[in-house]
Amino acid sequence: MSLLTVALTAASLNPVAAADRALPPPGFHHLTSVHYDGTGDDLLTAGLGFDGLRGPLPAPADPDRPTTAELRRQAIWASAGMSAGSGGGLGRLYGADVDRGRPLPGDGRIAGTEYRAVAGRGADSVSFVVQVPDTFDRARPCVVAAPATGLGGVYSMTGTAGAWGLHRRCAVAYTDKGMGPAFDDLHSGTVMAYDGTTGPRTQVGGRSAFDPGLTDAERARFDAARPYRVAYKMAHSRTDPQATWGRDVLRSVRLALAVLNRDRRSGAPRGGYTAATTTVLATGVSNGGGAAVAAGEDDRTGLVDAVVASEPQMNLAPLNGIRVRQAGRAVPAAGLPLIRYNSLASLLQPCAALTEPSAPGYATLDVPAARRRCAALVGDDPRLITRRDAARAGEDGLPRLAARALVRAGFQLRSGYLQLSHYDPQTPASYAMSYARASVDDALCGYGWARTDGSGAPVPYRRAELAAAFGTSPGRAPVPGVLIDENAPGGPVADSKSPGADGRHDYNLRGERCVYRLAFPRADAPPADRTWAARLASGLDATRRSGDLHGKPALIVHGRDDARVPVNHSSRPYLGLNTRAQQGNSTVSYVEVTHAHHSDAQTPGLDNRYVPLGYYYQQALDVMWQRLRGRGGELPPSQVVRTVPRGGEPGRAPELTPANVPAIAADPAAGDRVRVVRGTVRVP
Questions:
Q1: Burial letters for 625-648: b for 16+ Cβ neighbours within 10 Å, e otherwise?
Q2: Contact criterion met (CB below 8 Å) for 150 and 175
Q3: Rounded to whole angstroms, how far apart are CA atoms 217 and 221?
Q4: Greater model confidence, 86 or 573
Q5: 323-330: long-range contacts (C-beta < 8 A, 24 or more apart)?
Q6: Which of 55, 246, 98, 39 is nearest to 617 (CA)?
Q7: Residue 140 has what DSSP assignment?
Q8: At a CB cut-off of 8 Å and minimum separation 6, what does 238 contact?
Q9: What are the pLDDT digits (tens) for 21-49?
Q10: With bands split at pLDDT 50, 70 and 90, how would you rate the model's confidence at 3?
Q11: Rounded distance, CA 447 to CA 230, Å?
Q12: Nearest to residue 208, comparing CAs of 177, 231, 182?
């Protein structure tokens, strides 16, 4: 294994004549390249092989001081998800070890060169990785741009889109979209460097991947008032990183083309690797899916050839007449941005969960607190539970009214079973901070993050917990950090243990109402609320998607029962926006999968009810690839794919088979087609 570190000097960024394509594009720094021989280490499995990806999390030799290679190995292991088992089809029907529906021979190790680079500094920094297999197809070059899913790190798509691209001899370009998982432990002064290692802020210095922007004096005052808190990049960068997702994906492609032109010149197309000679596919899942769509919209030069997105999280431009109908009926709400439907859902979910006593997580639900939440929802707000409806339904009927309110908010009726497992107040809290460009010191709506003890009180992190964050953190506060209610009556406490004014547990109703007020501002709100709401709205508007992909083909797959990113607020209305942008000739093919949701988790209760959307994501990549390579003709029409759940008892579902997951149809039945008619998206 050879290591080459390239320092980008001012002179190197001002090349002359034809040599310019051989150098990295301006704006990148800390560029490194490592060649993996495919034996001791590799691009796809980090030296673990498929068997290692199925095993437990690989432990570092020294948990307090993991190396860059050990952190990378953990991150790649997590991206594959193969330790979850194969009952749901992962590893048998789809996954890093499956290509075109068939398990791959061998152990999966792929030799090649991996490049890492950074653009921007501190809170503005964005991380990139480009993987080029030794088998890279120079005759028909291709780049798969795979931005991170969720708030995850730069390697979070290695086991999905990365594996798919490497199997096709493409270069793969990853980016963390400027979101994660960097942090600053404001008590110990421990920060994360660009390479994932951690150390004292004074020693890491200019290599820090995140700086919350506090002076030494402000840090000292903050820690004295709120000891042991941690700031993390997505919530506290004060930069609204979602606003530049598209830019970052396009940057990753340009970096890939630059290193290819420098290091793969022999056998390259005449003129080198360019938008004209190289097939570029932007693809992602959830936030990464939204970023892939953003790249398609932001690209006006033909750099990206096509987009494939799974369950994309997108804040849409105002629909202005675009409507959605399902089974002939108008859906009650469509096109809401995440901060609105998510803050509303957080208020309703503890109460609505009482209608699903068999749902995963119900055993941990504080039923008395949930009933008190039901009572607190009664009032004049038509989005919640009105007094008139409450009087008719009685106390026992309030959970049913809360469940109905979620449906009025655009969630699918069948997603009610998932609402409790998706109750996550830190999602709307962190997005509120991100859109409003709030500082950690603002503690917007009384929220913070910290490690806690058994009582919920903030306590110091252990060194090993901070050191492991690059490989184990989902992009929020390092594990096991949790959301803190800073304004709890008895003092700061874990949000999940937060009491109300009467001392009884109430799931921090104060904080959730605050975020909800900022997401749905009222003209008579206090001045401070109006100021924060205006800041939030400005940041939100910077993230909106118009539907204009400039003629690029796109294939979007989405689970109908998604309770994290509801189809009515994302893919369905986006199809309508794209159709309007293309004067009625949509370039988007939309595939809605029944009995699928936002996660392919196989926990008891989910295993027997739901099929994996990941199976259809991999199939969608195959379908688009056939088109890009000139072998597949047009994309399949927009459609509903009707799947068959595995059935059986929770935790004992039979193995998923192809009979459970019919293929995306090239010519779907008329009753399964999704159509856009005069601005209305009609879903069967």
A1: bebbeeeeeebbbbbbbbbebbee
A2: no
A3: 6
A4: 573
A5: 323/576, 323/679, 323/680, 323/681, 324/568, 324/572, 324/573, 324/576, 324/680, 324/681, 324/683, 325/680, 325/681, 325/682, 325/683, 326/683, 326/684, 327/683, 327/684
A6: 98
A7: S
A8: 123, 212, 213, 437, 438, 439
A9: 446 678 999 999 999 999 999 999 999 99
A10: very low
A11: 11
A12: 182
Residues with a catalytic annotation lie at 286
DSSP state string for 397-433: GHHHHHHHHHHHTT--GGGGGGTGGG--THHHHHHHH
Distance from C-alpha of 143 to C-alpha of 304, rounded to nearest angstrom = 9
Quick check: pTM over 0.90? yes
Q: What is the average per-residue pLDDT within 345-356?
A: 98
Of 94, 103, 114, 167, nearest to 5 by C-alpha is 114
- Contact predicate 252/173, CB 8 Å: yes
Average pLDDT over residues 655-672: 97
For residue 599, what is the DSSP state? -
CA distances from 158 to 73, 383, 471, 616 (A): 11, 40, 13, 17
Q: What is the pLDDT of residues 182-192, one digit of tens each?
A: 999 999 999 99
Name the β-bridge partners of 681. 324, 676
Amino acid symbol at 102: R
Buried b (16+ CB within 10 A) or exposed e, 431-452: bbbbbbbbbbbebbbbbbbbbb
Q: Which of 432, 429, 447 has the alpha carbon at shortest distance from 535?
A: 432
| Nearest C-alpha neighbor of 145 from the set 236, 248, 13 | 248
Decide if pLDDT at 13 tops 70: no
> DSSP letters of 44-102?
TTTT-HHHHHHSSPPPPSSTTS--HHHHHHHHHHHHH-GGG-STTSBTTTBSTTEETTE
Q: Could you tell me if 454 and 496 are in contact, meaning their C-beta atoms sit under 8 angstroms apart?
A: no
Packed helices 527-541 and 509-519: angle between N→C axes, nearest 10 degrees: 60
Structure tokens at 435: 């859109």
Backbone angles phi, psi at 273, to 5 degrees: -90, 110
pLDDT tens for each residue of 611-641: 999 999 999 999 999 999 987 778 999 999 9
Q: State the number of CA atoms in the 13 A half-sphere of 94 facing the CB.
A: 23
Beta strands in 201-328 (DSSP E): 230-232, 279-285, 306-310, 315-316, 323-326
At residue 8 the predicted structure's pLDDT band, cuts being 50, 70 and 90, is very low
Output the six-digit token pair for 518: 């900022």
Q: Which residues contact 18 (CB under 8 A, 6 or more apart)?
A: none
Tell me the per-residue pLDDT of 372-422, one tens digit each, with 9 for 90 and over. 999 999 999 999 999 999 999 999 999 999 999 999 999 999 999 999 999
| Three-state DSSP state, 117 | strand
Q: Are 240 and 266 in contact (CB under 8 A)?
A: no
CA distance 360 to 341: 22
Q: Cα 501 to the chain's mean position, in Å?
A: 35
Angle at the Cα of 73 from the Cα atoms of 158 and 89, rounded to 5 degrees? 50
* 19 Cβ contact list (under 8 Å, min separation 6): none
